[in-house]
Amino acid sequence: LEKDLVIAIDGPAGAGKSTVAKIIAEKLGYIYIDTGAMYRALTLKALSKDYDLEDEQKLGVLAESTDIKLVKAGEDNLVILDGEDVTEEIRDNKVSNNVSVVAKVPKVRKEMVRLQRNMAKSGGVVMDGRDIGTIVLPAADIKVFLTASVEQRAQRRYDELIDKGEDVNLEQIKAEIIRRDNIDKNREVAPLTEAEDAIRVDTTKLDIGQVVEEILNICQEV
Ligand code: CDP
Ligand code: CDP
């Protein structure tokens, strides 16, 4: 590629954003920023402090006083919350099922977006989330909106959790994904929507390699 690009990848849960974004960043030598991990880290902290997740004021203050870093360590992308490695913990189902409630708080979003823009300012970045192409990096060189049927997305998340040895139920996971998508799509600030200038890629019938190839082709064209 002739220049360092800023690549924004958005879409609902289980569309393949983080898997694909990470591979693309590696192939291009770019930094990868998982914005969902930041909202997850903050949610983990709020849960561990037993916060009332309806208390927006308190969550806003928490966001401003929390140190969240995304650190690359060899192959791994570590999530560091107030100096502690929480990479694994933030994937717990308890966090997944509460993160959308924390992420809809305007003050929380304001603080996360500030950190995200700061992380992206050097260019050569792949950032994934829900509002990257619309709000965080509206001038991104490439905006991709990944989708897949909700059945397929639930199946992927299910397979992932089964692999980790968790005792999960497919219908329940599907219901949780639908619920989370609804909160993300209907919140007042920065809802999950496709940017007007995004390229939509339906991954329902594509494997990871095919999705990566499609996005790399888009990068070549730009
Ligand atoms: O990986 P998965 O799709 O399950 O979710 P994630 O990307 O880790 O994001 C978790 C949650 O964080 C989402 O459901 C949103 O509620 C929130 N999020 C957000 O509001 N804005 C972003 N840019 C990224 C995530
Ligand atoms: O970040 P997001 O929630 O959009 O999805 P992900 O965490 O990257 O992907 C969820 C799961 O689906 C992972 O286990 C991926 O390996 C898998 N996946 C897949 O099987 N086929 C794809 N085309 C994309 C993802």
Plain-language structure description:
The relative contact order is 0.21. The longest helix has 17 residues, at 170-186. The strands form two sheets. A five-stranded parallel sheet has the order 2-6-1-7-8, sandwiched between helices. The chain has helices at 17-28, 35-48, 56-64, 93-96, 99-103, 106-120, 132-136, 150-163, 170-186, 208-221; strands spanning 6-10, 31-34, 68-73, 76-81, 84-85, 125-129, 142-147, 199-202. Strand 3 and strand 4 form a beta hairpin. The protein starts with 5 loop residues before the first strand and ends with a helix. The chain is α/β, with parallel strands linked by helices and 222 residues long. The chain binds cytidine-5'-diphosphate (CDP) (2 copies). The site of one cytidine-5'-diphosphate (CDP) has 15 residues, from helix 1, helix 8 and helix 10.
